[in-house]
Design a protein that fits this description.
Shape: globular
Number of helices: 4
Helix content: 10-25%
Largest sheet: 13 strands, antiparallel
Length: 300
């Protein structure tokens, strides 16, 4: 009986020590040449649009799809200005979630070489650059560095953190950069974001920190560049984003898991032939990434 009592005491002390320990928070991790692993990537997106005139619904549409990529991978080159990764496809498909129809984007065992030179990504297969459609599909998950948001500049912390601690996002400009590049932006004054170190968790044999975050903004502004009909008014808009990541305590190790969800909505008023058409739009996207140890050999 006393033995169990001491075990509980030791467990409690271990929890207190863990909670008081300070950890370095680093999101952006460098790959190492020679690393081999399995990865799973999934993007789920849904778009809802409702068109009304004088409170009568003219049209309503919902589009939703899921893109799934599973592959083996090996890092061949990992230099400051050059990164080369070879992957062997296990499954790469797109599914229309409204009817279950699947499209195979690349067949099983297809070899793809992903080269990133000075931030620009190019895809090769069989010694040749892939066609534009295949490159478009692969770019869902492998983007040029210029398109990537630098996580440490937004969610990172200059200070070490304890479990249970929260902090504000670092750079509003970096957070909004993706919208700004597309000619739109949200009111920076409305942008809010918080990051929290939730706990420690062992994942695929790796000791990690569970970090979550939330970001919100409103006040979308789009320049008059022909994307909307003349005199279109944006009456309301919002952006909400949440994420959960597992950050290895060992800073040399890559992130094994992350989930990011973004929701964006807006309402428009469009003058048309003396009437006003109201458009309500809601878009959501979820990106899931998992990276696990390679447990068997494959032809890389």
């Amino acid at each position: 009986m006393m033995k169990l009592f001491y075990i509980f005491i030791l467990m409690g002390l271990n929890f207190i020590v863990t909670a008081q320990e300070e950890y370095e928070i680093k999101f952006d991790r460098d790959n190492i040449a020679g690393q081999k692993f399995n990865f799973f990537k999934k993007k789920t997106e849904k778009l809802t649009r409702v068109f009304t005139k004088e409170d009568a619904i003219l049209k309503s549409e919902i589009k939703s799809k899921e893109t799934l990529l599973e592959a083996y991978a090996e890092i061949l080159v990992a230099e400051e200005n050059e990164h080369v990764m070879k992957i062997v496809i296990k499954s790469f498909k797109e599914t229309d979630l409204s009817n279950g129809k699947e499209i195979v984007l690349l067949t099983k065992d297809t070899d793809i070489l992903i080269k990133t030179i000075e931030g620009a990504v190019t895809f090769y297969s069989g010694g040749k650059e892939v066609d534009k459609l295949t490159a478009k599909h692969l770019s869902i998950f492998f983007r040029s560095k210029d398109d990537n948001i630098k996580d440490d500049e937004i969610f990172g912390s200059e200070e070490k953190r304890k479990i249970g601690e929260s902090w504000d996002i670092k750079s509003k400009d970096e957070m909004l950069r993706g919208f700004t590049k597309k000619g739109a932006t949200f009111d920076k004054k409305t942008l809010k974001g918080k990051v929290t170190l939730q706990s420690r968790e062992t994942l695929d044999g790796v000791d990690t920190l569970v970090v979550t975050g939330e970001v919100s903004a409103s006040g979308l502004n789009v320049p008059d560049n022909g994307k909307f009909p003349p005199n279109t008014e944006i009456t309301s808009s919002f952006l909400k984003s949440s994420y959960l990541v597992n950050l290895p305590i060992d800073l040399k190790l890559a992130m094994p898991k992350s989930v990011m969800t973004m929701k964006f909505g807006m309402s428009l008023k469009i003058p048309l032939k003396g009437k006003v058409i109201t458009v309500q739009m809601l878009m959501s996207q979820t990106f899931e990434n998992e990276r696990t140890k390679l447990k068997s050999a494959f032809g890389l």
